[in-house]
Write the structure tokens for this entry.
Amino acid sequence: MSRYFYYLVVVEFVGSILSVIPSFLFESSKKGTIMSMLLALLAGVAFIYWITKFFNHYPGRGLPELLQQHIPKWMAFPILFLFSLAWFIFGLKTLLNYSFLLKRFLLPHLQINWIIALLLLFITYSFFMKTKKLLYTLEIVLFINIPLMIYIIGILYVNTGLDWDYVKKSMMYVYHAPNLLAFSASFLIFIGASNLIIVNREFKNKQKLTTFQILLLCVLGAWILFTNYFIPIGYNGFERIQYINFPWILGTDSLKVALAFLERIMFVFLFLHISVTFVNIIIFWHVSLELLKSTAKLVRRKQKESNMITYIFVLVVWSISLIISMKITESSYLMYARSLFVAFPPFFLLVLIVCWFISWRDKHDNRSLKTN
């Protein structure tokens, strides 16, 4: 597979660490979180395999082109619009989460709407970037940040402050029945491959997805889930972990190192992680914008109108983000996010159904051509 495919998967893996995903896992720590994570690992790797295998059959084409070729416009239009809305919500959810994170730990005296406006100033520029340049940016960010993040997580594993007794205690609940919220939160870390619905346009050559690569993704996903759940428990305790919103920050704040300019791990870890997640937001909204452009092209194909959609999208992003930021609080955000997470697995099942339907129509069309 192209290295950019792995970047799409890894950026979602990394982004899950400081998101609300660990909080939702801890919320159900005594109600089947471990079993939920195991099921989500199987479902997530299967999702990556199926959606990747589907797009490998259509190199250089994204979902809009395939819908336009194999599905009537009256069906393609609502599908593209729904998917565009969903990816917009993914980006908005991530933006709000990290705005609250910045306010609590770095900018406590700044109002949340000003933090969001500051982030949007940089994000807006990305709306005018092409997909290929966006992938180059993603590569640079991961190349710079991932080694340091692996180093910090490695320190967390070997530090004496990690109490493995807490981890063993949490494992005693392994036989509890799965929990829907915990399953949904765990499954969310595997959705990075779904960005192929647009990014596959840049993969001009047919890719290969071997058994070894699937196993590699499975092992990496399992390690991320283990790290997300058990490491904060080892530092903060099992009984009180569910009452902490950002346990990873407290865990890294307990570490100090004497390595060049590094001393307080928390701030370094926070900046590294936010830069990776910043690119994640950009990718989500880039996919949303491209889907919206494709929706408009089903009606009219003029390039000027396509460019106008970008400016309209910028206006919508700014308006909705700022309006929500002035009305929402951290507690209400967690409440809405909880409901939203439960809807994620059914939505991505719908994505797979759409892909299957396109594949079925393609085979049916090919048979008709051979018959004629």
Summary: The mean pLDDT is 85. The chain has one domain: 3-371.
